[in-house]
TrEMBL record:
GO MF annotations in UniProt: DNA binding; sigma factor activity
Coiled-coil stretches noted in the UniProt entry, renumbered to this chain: none
Every RNA polymerase sigma factor 70 region 4 type domain range: 119-169
Superkingdom, taxonomy of origin: Bacteria
Full protein name: RNA polymerase sigma factor, sigma-70 family
Name of a matching Pfam family: Sigma70_r4_2
Gene source species: Thermobacillus composti (strain DSM 18247 / JCM 13945 / KWC4)
Amino acid sequence: MAVPGDDAYQESVYKSLKPLLFSLAYRMLGSVMDAEDVVQESFMALERTGSDHIANVRAYLCKTVTNRCLNLLQSSAKKRELYQGPWLPEPLIGEPGRTPEADDPLQSYVHKESLATAYMLLLQQLSYVERAVFLLREVLQYDYDEIADIVGKSSVNCRQIYHRAKRSLGSRASEARGEVPPADSAAAAPARLVEQFVHALANADVDRLMHLLSADTALTMDGGGKVTALPRTVVGSKRIAVFMATMPDVLPPDAAFHLAEVNGLPGVVVQSQGQTIGVASFDYAGGRIAAIYIVVNPDKLRHVALMQGGHS
């Protein structure tokens, strides 16, 4: 039996708590790579401190991760203000049809709650402390005394912060979790919509693209000033369809579209010459695509592994 302080215990703690801690850090930061770094650094801090005298290792690590996230957000606030064009979170990629619980405990945990891009963007509207309190309460189900100890505020204050954050998000939070259509509505299922979208895109079929989009669909691209991208969000099915129909001429000749799970919902990964050059995630409503989010900033795509096959 593993006991605090030995290697088997440390390994057990790492395997059981890493998914939870990554989920918290990713929602706080909107960055896969930064979240992984924060979690790794927090485990290293635990190893240096020693776990044998820590009463609640889970609470200790959640506090360490939260504080490291808050420090990182504060130190990078100016960088975010100077970010060129719209900002989107780094995409979190899974494989369509895969059962994450079977082979990846990280994926098993993070998919229990929505990670939809629209929901992640709503979280970004909260202040750093509001985001921490909201996630600790809403996602990790911590009580207010535990949250108070983690963020260094009174439990009464944390309760007020949580309710204020919840009101701020309002009904938009539930709307941004992604639509799950009835099982018999195969034609309107998100995965089918994305597949049809890719085919229409590859054929530059403006009419078909318009049919798949809601009238007020919004398209947001994140190039970060590193590559060419739309400088602001574009709204309207016709404008977006006409723009998207030009993409085959702009993309490299060998560009391949891979259907993938992006932030917990069906999406697309675009790759060329051994590199990921774009990732698209979507929102769905009424059997159509309600929003398109495309990350083309190469700095945000370095963690996306190459995929086999695909639609070209």
